Amino acid sequence: MKNIVIFGAPGAGKGTQSDFIVEHYGLTHVSTGDLLRKEIADQTELGKRIKSIMDAGQLVSDDIVIEMMDKAIANDTKGMLFDGFPRTVAQAEVLDKLLAKYGRELTCMVQLEVPKDELMRRLLERAKIQGRADDNEATINNRLQEYNSKTKPVADYYAAQGKQKLIDGLGTIEDIAARIRQAIG
Ligand code: ADP
User: Fold this and answer.
1) Ordered per-residue pLDDT tens for the chain, 185 residues
2) Counting Cβ atoms within 10 Å, is residue 49 exposed (0-12), middle (13-18) or buried (19+)?
3) Is the pTM higher than 0.90?
4) Ligand 1 within 6 A of 143 CB?
5) 87 in catalytic set
6) Is any atom of ligand 1 closer than 6 Å to the C-beta of 13?
7) Can you give the CATH number for the domain in which 122 is found?
8) Of the candidates 163, 168, 176, 126, which has an alpha carbon nearest to the alpha carbon of residue 24?
9) Considering its fold, how many domains does the chain have in total?
10) In a 3-state reduction of DSSP, which class is residue 19?
């Protein structure tokens, strides 16, 4: 059973490539961003608490996402693709513990590498199409800052475990999907 993390800056293409990976390997896709946006859309208590944080491009607290992930792993039988999680080293450490608790282990981390000017271009393009509340220039800058200060160290965490697979995230969607399949094996 495979359990994979897809990793990269906002706009790196995690969502797009996730679709190909879950299809190819028969995994359950779990996106913390999607789960959190659903809480906001459903106007739950949690949704009300996190809306302003997400709109500002900041990370919601580790406790909230960790609880969501624990539930998601408990409910899964196929193996999972984690998209948007872990986003801090603390979350990465917890993911290892959670997987162990359910008798699993992380297979690898797939990291999409895309230069900053291309990230910005893609996110502004997506803003026009999807109208996501956090896809505007000020919030995008905050998200990239949060990524650089809190999330990037997660890459070193997996490199130290020998689980990091670096993927060139430029090119056609199909080319990138093929690179990922080759890296995962
Ligand atoms: P992107 O990677 O394009 O920025 P996501 O949909 O993955 O978009 O995440 C959107 C927002 O959801 C983040 O800016 C953050 O506020 C929140 N979020 C998602 N995942 C996490 C996480 N693991 N920890 C904390 N906050 C998160």
Assistant:
1) 999 999 999 999 999 999 999 999 999 999 999 999 999 999 999 999 999 999 999 999 999 999 999 999 999 999 999 999 999 999 999 999 999 999 999 999 999 999 999 999 999 999 899 888 898 989 999 999 999 999 999 999 999 999 999 999 999 999 999 999 999 99
2) middle
3) yes
4) yes
5) yes
6) no
7) 3.40.50.300
8) 176
9) 1
10) helix
